[in-house]
Amino acid sequence: MTMYATSREALARTRSVANDALGSASAGEATASAAQTGAELFAVVETLDGQRTLRTALADASVSASRRSALVEELFAGQVSGITAQILKSAVSESWSKASDLLNSLVELGREALLRAAADQDQLDTVEDELFRLGRIVAANPSLEQALSDLGKPVQAKRELLGRLLYGKVTAVTEALAIQAISRLRTTAPADALDALAGQAAQVRDRAVAHVRSAAPLSDSQLEKLTATLTRTYGKPVTVHVEVDTELLSGLVVRIGDEVIDGSGAGRLAALRKTLK
User: Fold this and answer.
1) Taking the domains of the chain in order of start, what are their residue ranges?
2) Hey, which of 30, 41, 92, 147 would disulfide with 110, CB 3.0 to 4.6 Å?
């Protein structure tokens, strides 16, 4: 998410409020509070997505912060929890470079709350793996990817389609994150959006993510060796996601962030062709 300094600082302050509010929940209520907050923030964003005048008013710097906060109180009193209301009031009291930054930041905070709930239940690694695998399923199914990315298709139809696909097969957090991401696609491909969510889950665990394409399935020992090597190289734990791509001929391709390590047979052949031209 790219934002100017003003919006980045506003997000940082709002995030601090959100973390303090969620951290104040009792041990027995922490998971439920985080999950509820994430779901409610997503619902608020969905409401604002459909009301341009309202979302503009909530980010209008020419209106006093107290008035914007009061507007949130009027709109959502009794509809969201005290924690969610506190986060919303903090968010609209900030100055944002543009109205879309406010909404995108609420999405980000909603995701963070849900990932916090998953962490509280020791499900964060499961959520990360499910999101990655879902991204691979979508990428490998052109008709599904087209259906989820079609801007002319009603959002509710996309939600229902993905909901049917995921029902009973993934954690509640994975389902909520995936459906919300697909609902707000603009120019990002569905598989890329899901990969980004998997990466965010890894970041919460303070891990780097390695996307590996291998010409053949890796054995457990090969996967362990690759993981250990990448962990030493990058100086932090690395989560390795592997997909088989027979078109590589041999070897594998590793991508971590913007860095790509191509040790595949297809890559070597391509390099050889360049030298022969």
Assistant:
1) 1-121, 207-276
2) 41
